[in-house]
Amino acid sequence: MSQTITITVPDGSFDAYLATPQGTNARGTAIVVIQEIFGINADMRETCDNFAREGFVAICPDLYWRQEPNVELTDKTEAEWQKALALYNAFDVDKGVADIDATIGAVRQQPGVNGGVGTVGYCLGGLLAYLTATRTGADAAVSYYGVGMDKHLGEASKISKPLLMHIADEDEFVPPEARQKIIGALQGNPQVEIHTYPGCQHAFARIQGIHYVDDAAKAANARTLKHFQAMK
Question: Which domain of life is it from (predicted)?
Fold first, then answer.
């Protein structure tokens, strides 16, 4: 079952897509799904729905609400790319993390949530998921091909809960030197598990995305599911 809920923060309020498990498979744990640069689109809703089918409460907050509420774009047209990049370039990362933290608090109050709350993010959300591992009380985090993480590695020592990372070996938005810097800074942390995906470009796991790679996406998603199933 899915619905839209409203989350209130000190400077306003924003919507979030909420998907809940049905029947007896509810796990008692929740996942905050963090958007790419395209807003809460069909991909993000399907991602939430898929987690709900696995027994998690899943919620995706509208992180662009201060710029433009209810943005919904795809990667299929140049016009959509240009709008998405403009929103991304104007996005306040610190406020975004604060909104995710508020979402973590809100989903802990949802019926049936009596265990851990994890975060998973893609692209922009991949960066934000990493930052939830350093700045919030998230119980687990998963980062898919995060962009700009190399600029925030000074926070890596604050990671105290499990963080799973999926890195595309041919990510056009994360240069090789940045990827190596990220891996080098994090691979020694016992809380961090890193997987790289040879031959894959950015967004290889985006549902119906132009760079989708079926084998790699299935492998990454299976690792993600296992990661969250271990969350208490």
Answer: Bacteria
| Residues classed as catalytic | 171, 202
For residue 148, give Cα distances in angstroms to 36, 123, 136, 153. Answer: 13, 9, 19, 10
Catalogue the E-assigned strands of 1-129.
Answer: 2-9, 12-19, 30-34, 57-61, 117-122
So what's the architecture of 2-229 in CATH? 3-Layer(aba) Sandwich (3.40)
Q: Are strands 57-61 and 12-19 parallel, antiparallel or unpaired?
A: antiparallel
Q: Tens digit of pLDDT for each residue in 22-43? A: 877 889 999 999 999 999 999 9
CA distances from 9 to 64, 103, 225 (A): 14, 10, 30
Cβ–Cβ contacts within 10 Å for residue 170, how many? 15
Separation of CA 166 from chain center: 11
**Do 15 and 70 contact (CB within 8 A), yes or no?**
yes
Beta-carbon contacts of 59 under 8 Å, excluding residues fewer than 6 positions away, are: 5, 16, 17, 18, 19, 30, 31, 32, 33, 48, 103, 106, 107, 110
Categorize the per-residue pLDDT at 13 as very low, low, confident or very high, splitting at 50, 70 and 90: very high
Its pTM surpasses 0.85: yes
The stretch 179-190 carries a mean pLDDT of: 95
* Integer angstrom CA distances of residue 135 from 43, 55, 101, 105: 26, 26, 9, 14
